[in-house]
Amino acid sequence: MANGNRHTAMEQARAFTFIEVIVALAIVSISLLALLRLHIISISMVDKAEITSQAVFLANEKIAETLAAGYPKEGTNSGTVEKNALCLDWKTEVTDIRLSQLDKAGIAGLRKISVVVNWKQGLGSKHLQMLTYVADRELK
Length: 140
Hints:
- This protein has helices at residues 2-14, 18-68, 100-104; strands at 75-83, 86-97, 110-121, 124-135.
- The chain is of the alpha+beta class.
- A hairpin with a 2-residue loop joins strand 3 (110-121) and strand 4.
């Protein structure tokens, strides 16, 4: 009989109680919820980065188009591009730069090219602006 009690006591010492199992499951489920939240945040960040990259590519494309025609004329140009169900509104503006320091040095023909890209993201709207400067190749 003494051997039977020892054997049962050993089996009880090796087994987990119901409370221990419930506590372990609670810890695991809280950890999984935190990991799920991090995964959702990372998906959102990737989506925002992809949209911003598309806006940067569009702005670079519009600057390249403006420069491809040679020395750009002053004025504005605008339009809308739809990429992957995303509507990107863009505006290109070319302005003449007149600085007193440049005038004193006898330099003319410096222009600023500004491209602004707007899009809707979530409840608000976002924008990206890229600038570059170009000089007339025939500076006098």
